[in-house]
Amino acid sequence: MGSLQIFSVLFFSLFLAKCYYSKEEDFLQCLSKYSETNITQNIYTPGSPIYSSILEYAQKNPRWLNSSHPNFIASPKEESDIRPVILCSKKKGLQIKIKSGGHDYEGISYRSESPFVMLDLSNLNKIKIDLKEETIWVQTGATLGQLYYAIAKKSKVHAFPAGVCFSVGTGGIISGGGLGALMRKFGLAADNVVDAHVMDVNGKILDRKMNEDLFWAIRGGGGASFGVILAWKLKLVRIPEKLTVFTIRRELEGNLTLLRKWENIAHQLPEDLFVRAFVQKGVFSEGNATKNHVGFYFQGQYIGPVDELIPLLNQYFPEFNLERKDCFKENITADAEKECFEVPWIRSVLYFSWRNPNDSLEVLLEKSIPTHKNYNKGTSDFVKTPIPESGWEMIEKLFREEERPQMVFEPFGGKMYEISESEIPFPHRKGNLYTIQYFVSWDNNSESISSQKIGWIRKLYKEMEPYVAKSPRTAYLNYRDFGLGTNEEDYSYSKAKIWGEKYFKGNFERLAKVKSKVDLKNFFRSEQSVTPYQLSY
PANTHER family this protein is in (predicted)? Predict the structure, then answer.
């Protein structure tokens, strides 16, 4: 390479660096202009010492760890600090990606093809409980673990019905609906929201009284399409001091009748009884079954003591053979055919997160970065009629082809059937027996391995088509899947409707109309954001 060429390369590199730092300085200066505090102390660039650790903690699914990174990470400590981030991002042509817990299945809270700011809400985690009113205000950077911990510290007879993974952020799970072990008794998390604070595209804070349509949209319609949800006001629910949790394990071969019985009656059980099913490999250890055996297990919760549960199980599932003495055993092995515990609600939370119910409650507050990288892909379906035997045979056959496959079946009925499809954007109510989550995980994130795993789950999803809800084939927003469709460059409503009605059915049109009122220019956008009604650029 000649001296002139070397000089040209150096000059071009310096030019790009100057442009980058100029844009960085422009954004920081803009923030200072609009901020009443020194917000720039909580703005991080790729050169900042803690930038990488914040990003790594945010990416609960590390598949995209080496893909597009934010130009800036904003980690505000006060809600008022978010306004300058919105206004300056608009001014400087940056998108905003809102990260509460970082569990989005497609990573849209921390990646983008366009220059963007990741708005990290994790510092906004204040919780205020009013037991007299039986409500709780929680900022959306708090995790479910922090929320549950705070409730348990205040009361032994109150709970909140939300998800079972306690590291999930309250901002994302509630705005997407919020399935959980208490839903048959109390409904979704989103069904139990009584107010909210939302910052709109102009930096104005709105509550329920100021915009009832927006309040409807963010309870199950995905909050990040409409603004930044700052805090939820939630309705606490009353529970007894003791609940009973249990697990029943079986091999699939020879026990399909029991699984099909569950399909037919799980939605009809008393609303205090929640029994979900898992199908996967490795239900039993090598001593009890070969590694390639496909098994299943039921994980259940009864909102009451064991003495009330046992008669119910004898009536509906005598095959479980669960006895009172099983609930007070010590030193149960991890793959025992049955196990049972009578515990306070907060310890049922630990149990449903695959923890020992006697573990310290402080684990609910953990915020460490996992040392083991678990790459994964998920998607979902809703089921209205039981799967025939041929369907289960297909599932077992495909599971034998994959190393770590899993399907999770969660029953509806009870309160879920009492709420109309249009009460909130989440439309999957009466008529749905249960929801399915398909899941596959792997350790090596090479392109060939990832493609193979994603190809497998796509194949399973395709083969399941005859057995699940149709017209449209439906899905759960919190198990987001770009395979259902994504927005195109023009963000047209007609194209977005193709994937949008899979999540929201007829509610998608109303969501799009709300979007037109609060964010007509479509600033808050992503591959699967709600688009303004009839928008065309």
Answer: OS08G0158400 PROTEIN
H-only helix segments in 122-250: 144-154, 170-176, 183-186, 212-218
Q: Which residue has the tokens 């939370």?
A: 349
**Of 68, 50, 164, the residue nearest 107 (C-alpha):** 68
In angstroms, the Cα distances linking 189 to 195, 361, 484, 511 are 13, 22, 24, 19
Give the chain's radius of gyration (CA, Å). 24
Let me know: does 215 contact 506? Beta carbons within 8 Å.
Answer: no
- What is the rounded distance in angstroms from the CA atom of residue 410 to the CA atom of residue 420? 19
Within its chain, how far is the Cα of 453 from the centroid?
21
Number of residues in the chain: 537
Q: Where in the sequence numbering do the catalytic residues fall?
A: 479
Cα distance between residue 227 and residue 229, in whole Å? 6
* pLDDT 10s digits, 46-68: 999 999 999 988 888 888 877 78
The rounded Cα 526 to chain-centroid distance in angstroms is: 17
Phi-psi region of 450 (alpha: psi -120 to 50; beta: other; left: phi over 0): alpha
Say if residues 80 and 19 touch (Cβ distance below 8 Å).
Answer: no
Which residues 6+ apart lie within 8 Å of 197 measured at CB?
79, 205, 206, 207, 229, 230, 231
C-beta atoms surrounding 53 within 10 Å: 12
Torsion on CA atoms 147, 148, 152, 154, rounded to nearest 10:
20
Start-end of H helices in 335-402: 345-352, 389-399
Range of weakest confidence among 16-25, 139-148, 158-167, 437-446: 16-25
Residue with the two structure tokens 């009466």: 430
Q: Residue 324 pLDDT > 50, yes or no?
A: yes
Q: Which sign, positive or negative, has the C-alpha torsion 509, 515, 516, 521?
A: negative
Beta-carbon count within 10 A of 333 CB: 10
339-394 per-position pLDDT tens digit? 999 999 999 999 999 999 999 999 999 887 777 778 999 999 999 999 999 999 99
Q: Which residue has the tokens 């056959």?
A: 397
Beta-bridge partner residues of 229: 198
Other C-beta atoms within 10 Å of 215: how many?
20
Question: How far apart are the C-alpha atoms of 419 and 98, rounded to whole Å?
Answer: 29
Helix (H, G, I), strand (E, B) or coil at 196: strand
**Residue owning tokens 């569990």:** 103
Q: Coil, strand, or helix at residue 74? A: strand
Which amino acid is residue 326, in one-letter code? D
Res. 299: pLDDT tops 80:
yes
For residue 154, count CB atoms less than 10 angstroms from its CB and return exposed for 0-12, middle for 13-18, buried for 19 or more. middle
Give me the amino acid identity at 218: I
Output the CA–CA distances (angstroms, integers) from residue 196 to 46, 90, 116, 177, 323, in the order listed.
33, 24, 26, 15, 45
Helix, strand and coil content of the chain, in percent to the nearest 5, comes to 40, 20, 40
Residues of 8-24 as b/e, b for ≥16 C-beta within 10 angstroms?
eeeeeeeeeeeeeeebb
Indicate yes or no: pTM above 0.85: yes
Alpha carbon 154 to its chain's center? 26
Residue 501 β-bridge partners: none
